[in-house]
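Bit of a strange request maybe. I'm writing a small parser for structure token strings and I need a real example to test against, not something I typed by hand. Could someone generate the tokens for this chain?
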Amino acid sequence: MLQIAALVIATGLVARAPSPPAVEPPMWVFFADKQVSATELEAVLSRQERELAPRALRRRMRVRGDRGVDVRDLPPADAYVQSVAATGARVRMSSRWLNAVSVEADAGQRSAIAGLPFVARLQPVARTRRNDHRPTLADEARTTAAFGVAEVQLEMLNVPAMRECGLTGAGVVVGVQDSGFSLGHQAFAGLNVLAARDFVQGDDVVADEPGDDEGQDRHGTIVLSLIAGDDGEQFSGVAPGVSVLLAKTERIGEEMPYEEDLYVAGLEWLEGMGADMFTASLGYYEWYTWEQLDGKTAVVSQAAAVALANGLIMFTANGNEGPEPGTLIAPADVDGIIALGATNLDGVIADFSSRGPTFDGRVKPDLLAPGKDVWVAQPGTVGEYQQANGTSLATPLAAGVGALLLEAYPDLTPTKMLELLRATASHPDAPDNEGGWGMIDGLAAAGLYCTCTDGDGDGHFAVACGGDDCDDGDATSHPGATEVCDGRDNDCDAAVPADEADGDGDGVRGCAGDCDDADPARWPGAAEVDDCIDNDCDGQVEPACAPTTGASGTGGDSESGESGEPPTTGTTGTTGTTEPESAGEASDSGAPASGEGGCGCATNDGTTSAWLLLALAALPRRRTRSRGRRAE
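Reply from user aminoacidic:
Good idea to test on real output. This should exercise your parser:
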């Protein structure tokens, strides 16, 4: 895990050694700038490009349309951080995106920090405690042949049909953030964990360890099982083919509430490590008032907005504080994040599921998924399952559907994912603050991927089954493709560019350099013959055929042609032998019979000769004779 630890340091999300909680709540210290001059900026941005995971950089560039890094990715100025530490405060976490550090400091230290000239403001670190409904232990687990006890909850989202068309989440990387993860359950036997980080203890152990409250990893284990668990016919999560990044960011003890600086640190780490998606079921409701739930005020909401701008698709719980209006939690208030409400297994919205709207009037939650009496892997066992409740469970189920869709459509952005899920949910035309746009329908969202064909694997589906790919046997032909010089309608706009024609059938198209698409003897690379035609399309004819005007030119006078020597009547242009022919008669080669000077020679009085006019008039007939025609 040395490489992972190195990246944590490089991204500025350094977890310091744990210590007992301070008497005063921890504080955010926001800096006014990053102390980087214009001359230094390019060098530090280039360094940051190299420190990001390549997958993260590609995602950012695809979604943002720029180089993928900007000043937000630079860590707070080291001099600023050192000055804060010099007051005696203990630095806990550092955030690039917020340009801030969190500290533990007493009143005197906070006063000293506030007086530093580069400090913009101080703000308490928000803290909260999870308000999950306790699990319901089932007397007997119901099983079916396909997905075991999870069959009903998966059916409600149309997941079995998505799995039947081959979707498992393969190739998708999901960042999961929670209280910890114990991977001893057999549902995780095939799980691919790419990296893990504990922001509570400052190490890479995400299961319970000394210093954690007993059972701290319980909630994260349950959540992870709903995304990626797989236990044959006993149980299945939604997307068992995904790879995961795991961040442990939450404390569970009453005396150790969840703190948003750990949340921000985990989010920045997961995004920088290359996650395609992020899911977390934690939110903040005790610290922030409804008036502050506008998607811009809460610190976790500000961090989530940056992650979304970087192309990270995000799922979050809307909260368990319902049924009153305006009971959502941060960061569910962010515009663009996918916030989940919960139903029971009959599709009825649970009373505890938080309702919207946001303070600025936007509908929340966005969508619904099962969250009451949901079957999960039972933590602390090897192969047992139980039922549990909470929007914390609806969220990973929805995130799993998102992973299946991202496998089907890898170019989905946060905006497009949200639009797709909303448009295909149970009531897309009548969203409300009880259940948003309705229950997720994974099969409807998958659309043509599961009901059509993509024979050439280009991500577009055949016209024959409702798609837009005009040639499903050619991966270079689909809407939006680049036109290439092949004579085909590559971009499926029902038109082939005129320069892609091969009118003379010589195997060379106008776009490939054919300078005369009516003459099969003319194309790049054709043999030049003595016919005063630019056969090889290089823009030049035979030197002896260069037109003259009667004035002196380089290398000869007006009567001698380019060689400077007078033409010899009867000499062909190819053999150098002299064979008299009648004036004006064309030679067998198609060249004029008047001699080496050829058709470009002028008479003494500067007028064009009659045989030249005749020769030009005859060119179309001579062009029908193929000379070195290239194979198709």
